[in-house]
Design a protein that fits this description.
6-stranded parallel sheet, 24 strands, mainly beta, about 170 residues
């Protein structure tokens, strides 16, 4: 598992795979604040069962103010048998940037009776806690699935000061 916290750490040229465990965010990688994952492959992370009683954000990677650049994110899976949110099987992002990436083949599936608990198969963008803008640029999001909303991408929340810019991307 790769993790950055409040620093300008750059992880460049890595494969991050087979991550899991009983953590709520970023089963493969968790990139905070000024951290960057560049030229990486994030694959086959997540969990097929959930033993904790909490939400899970980001089966492949959780981007919280950081940057995901020129990465491939695929084959990540989240599955849940309990009534808790599972969001962003490939990527969960709040206040971050995704640039020149490909996000595909990720699966978000809740066995719980309400499909509202399973959102964002490929990419889930949260409104965040401040006035920052999340950016998705030159990115291709395809062939992802979710039992609930947003097989490709799901954007949550609403705010007059909150923005998500999607630039030259295919979803």
């Amino acid at each position: 598992k790769a993790y950055t916290e409040a620093t300008a750490t750059v992880w460049d040229g890595f494969t991050i795979q087979n991550g899991g465990g009983n953590i709520y965010a970023g089963r493969g990688a968790w990139i905070k604040d000024y951290g960057t994952l560049r030229n990486c492959v994030i694959r086959n992370n997540g969990s097929e069962t959930m033993s904790s009683s909490t939400a899970i954000y980001g089966g492949g990677v959780y981007v919280n103010g950081g940057t995901l650049e020129n990465c491939k994110v695929y084959g990540n899976k989240l599955s849940n048998n309990k009534p808790y949110y599972i969001c962003g099987a490939g990527v969960y992002m709040t206040d971050g940037r995704i640039v020149d990436c490909e996000i595909y083949g990720n699966e978000n599936y809740s066995n719980y009776s309400s499909s509202t608990y399973s959102q964002g198969g490929g990419l889930y963008i949260s409104k965040g806690n401040n006035d920052k803008t999340s950016v998705v640029e030159n990115t291709y999001v395809h062939d992802n699935s979710s039992r609930g909303n947003g097989g490709g991408m799901y954007v949550s929340g609403r705010s007059s000061t909150r923005r998500v810019n999607i630039i030259n991307s295919k979803i």
